[in-house]
Automatic annotation (TrEMBL):
Entry-linked InterPro entries: HXXEE
Protein name: HXXEE domain-containing protein
Transmembrane annotation, as ranges: 12-30, 87-104, 110-130, 137-158, 170-187
Origin: domain of life: Bacteria
Keyword Membrane: yes
UniProt cross-references to Pfam families, sorted A to Z: HXXEE
Keywords: Membrane, Transmembrane, Transmembrane helix
Amino acid sequence: MEVIHLNMLRKYWQDLGLLVASLVCIYVVINWGTLSRINSILWLSFVAILLHQFEEYRWPGYFAGLFNKALFRSEAPERYPLNKQSAMIINIIIAYVFYLPPVFFPSLAWLGLAPVLMGFFQIIWHGIFANIKAKSIYNPGLFSAIFLHLPIGSWYINCAYDQHLLTSTDWIWGTIYFVIAVYILIVKGNMWLRNKNSIHPFSQNQLGPYYNK
């Protein structure tokens, strides 16, 4: 039974994220007048990462193919260095361990700033680095980075300053936390979980134009 549940989660974690994002949006809209503005923005920042992951892994969803083939020139892009299990683990931790906690501690500006910085980092990674490597003008994740992470992150910073929540110390700790998170979750995470013999390959749709290239 546990194996079945894990298989379902590996296949549908990004869809579950879309459902969670939809429920959060409904919650924020219903409680817009009672939630603090900074708390509402943090909820929307959480929504942004869930939609970002949906764009990467479901629709159009071929980020895995781009990552493995265009960036790492893998001879087994369906499973190396990124595979379906490592993608699930890394992204679930990013969303629910890194992006979600600030919602419950909105007065800790550095805690909310770190995910905002990661959102800005996504713009550079998808918009410049990945596009140069792939020789493209779009890759899955770029749309949400520009139209969700950028405006929501900018809104958070402006609101935090208006409410005198954001200080120089918060910038220092927030930046340190962001750098550590990127290093552990993205850089090292992909190295720790890579497996040339992984039994959890990506689907043809998740490889997209990089399938059989």
